[in-house]
Design goal:
Strand order of the largest sheet: 1-4-5-9-8-7
Number of helices: 10
Number of strands: 17
Structural class: alpha/beta
Helix content: 25-40%
Strand content: 25-35%
Bound molecules: zinc ion
Distance between the termini: 38 Å
Order of helices and strands: HEEEEEEEEEEEEHEHEEHHHHEEHHH
Length: 386
């Protein structure tokens, strides 16, 4: 089986037995623990996450009568404290079950109700296997009498035990981006057309995969993840906006590696895999409407730069729209971007980020970018919620 058919198998043709090698170089001699199984569920979309102690190989197969998908995790052991049956009952999945299939294999079974398809990918540090399950879409007739709503999910990065990047005087990314997100929510809510959700509105930790799951569960029209940048070079500063895509720009990879909490080496390995298994990325971003994400990223970036330049506060440096493999954007089903609002590692920009009025300018600029995007979108697309 060549690598391409592996990726197709994983993502599209799940009826046949497939094997994905997660371990990129070393062969683990010890068993991998299957530590936990979590899920987020909604009528059209469910995300299941299997938490692992390290890399594993797995195979997967869909069976009928009853309809189910199983994942065999090789050289694995089920942690004793794990809950082995999770009743889901959301119309897509009846339940998720896990068991020690044999001495070497943990089998996780998704008992299906009615699904359209599913896709699988791996996130590292800690290693987790993510399974996105999609329901059969029912055609929605646009109701003329209903006011069109814009549903926006704002995602302030980090939180809780994860402070994110830290400035020279100790300013934490998690606090800065939360404040910007709260301000952005307030600005957006001034327009009754907007419905706004935050992935967190307090100082709590939320995993990257949960943030995307929240946006998908809410059927958001837009997903905006807010971060502050950092560089080992103190003099580096500026504003940049990202969307999900493969890149060969090492700086962009470095930013994504930091936000993904993985090493640059791991990031490069992932790029090599993605390059070989090009299908995976196409599928991961299939729903994210890449052209719309590019457009949204451009409007937000332009608005950020021009707002800050028009204000007397600071002449923001335009680092442009870039792309990289950010975990938090994997599997997002709507136009989605990640904004690096300034460099907290730069003494001047750290000082600015600690200033309430600068944070307010940034929030206003992101809101304006979103508005400009909406205004530029044809009316029929708005009705269709595109
Ligand atoms: Zn961040």
């Amino acid at each position: 089986m060549n690598s391409n058919s592996v990726s197709k198998g994983i993502l599209k043709y799940c009826a046949s037995l497939i094997v994905l090698f997660l371990a990129t170089s070393s062969i683990a001699s010890e068993k991998t623990d299957v530590k936990d199984i979590r899920y987020w569920s909604s009528p059209g979309y469910t995300r299941v996450v299997i938490d692992l102690s390290g890399s594993v190989e797995f195979s997967s197969k869909r069976l009928t009568d009853p309809d189910r998908i199983y994942f065999d995790l090789h050289k694995s052991e089920l942690a004793k404290e794990i809950k082995t049956t999770l009743p889901v009952g959301d119309g897509l999945l009846k339940a998720v079950r896990a068991g020690q299939f044999d001495a070497e294999t943990v089998r996780v079974v998704l008992d299906l109700e009615k699904i359209k398809d599913f896709k699988t990918f791996i996130l590292e540090n800690p290693t987790r296997l993510v399974i996105d399950v999609y329901g059969v879409e029912t055609a929605k007739k646009p109701e003329v009498t209903t006011t069109v709503k814009r549903r926006i999910v704002i995602d302030p990065g980090h939180g809780g035990h994860d402070p994110g990047a830290m400035g020279p005087t100790g300013l934490c990314e998690k606090d800065v981006v939360l404040d910007i997100a709260l301000k952005l929510r307030e600005i957006l809510l001034a327009d009754p057309i907007n419905e706004v959700f935050l992935t967190r509105d307090t100082d709590i930790f939320i995993s990257l995969e949960e943030r995307t799951a929240i946006a998908n569960k809410k059927s958001a029209d837009f997903f905006v993840s807010i971060h502050a940048n950092a560089s080992p070079l103190r003099k580096v500063k500026g504003i940049e906006t990202y969307l999900l895509n493969w890149t060969n720009d090492e700086e962009a990879m470095r930013v994504a590696a930091r936000e993904n909490k993985i090493s640059l080496k791991k990031m490069k390995e992932m790029h090599r895999q993605m390059d070989t298994l090009g299908m995976i990325l196409n599928d991961l971003s299939r729903d994210s409407k890449r052209n719309d994400s590019i457009k949204l990223a451009n409007y937000i970036q332009r608005s950020m730069v021009s707002t800050l330049n028009n204000g007397s506060i600071y002449k923001g440096i335009d680092l442009g729209v870039k792309q990289a493999l950010f975990y938090v954007l994997f599997g997002a089903r709507m136009p989605s971007v990640l904004v690096e609002v300034s460099f907290i590692s730069n003494p001047q920009e750290e000082r600015l980020l600690s200033d309430e009025s600068y944070r307010m300018q940034i929030a206003k600029a992101i809101a304006k970018g979103l508005d400009t995007y909406i205004d530029s979108t044809p009316a029929e697309q708005k009705v269709a919620g595109l």
